[in-house]
TrEMBL record:
InterPro entries: 2TM_dom
Pfam families tied to this protein: 2TM (PF13239)
Superkingdom per UniProt: Bacteria
Protein name according to UniProt: 2TM domain-containing protein
UniProt keyword terms in alphabetical order: Membrane, Transmembrane, Transmembrane helix
Classification of source organism: Bacteria, Pseudomonadati, Pseudomonadota, Betaproteobacteria, Burkholderiales
């Protein structure tokens, strides 16, 4: 089990699980809207013989990528976040082993 959750109560774990699931669901909705809107923009752009749709694809795609990175790697409960917290905990209490 995750060391930060060993002493957590069941309601705390439930709250964290719901928050994490909600954040991931938010990303899936974001990705779905990204695909739908950009398919429409690409179709509109191509029908006029232009390639301007690549700019919203790249800009919004970068935002979607950053959103995903935060959700899966940096947010509380993610492995990267847990490692940073543990490193800070060791720095603040150098004599303790977790």
């Amino acid at each position: 089990m995750n060391p930060t959750l060993q002493n957590a109560s069941r309601p705390d774990i439930e709250k964290l699980a719901r928050r994490r699931a909600g954040a991931k669901m938010g990303w899936y909705i974001h990705a779905f809207v990204y695909v739908l809107v950009n398919l429409g923009l690409v179709a509109l752009s191509a029908s006029r013989g232009h390639t301007w749709a690549v700019y919203p694809l790249m800009g919004w795609g970068l935002g979607l990528l950053i959103h995903g990175a935060v959700i899966w790697f940096v947010a509380p409960g993610g492995g990267f976040y847990d490692r940073l917290v543990e490193r800070e905990r060791r720095a603040l209490h150098p004599g303790e082993r977790g």
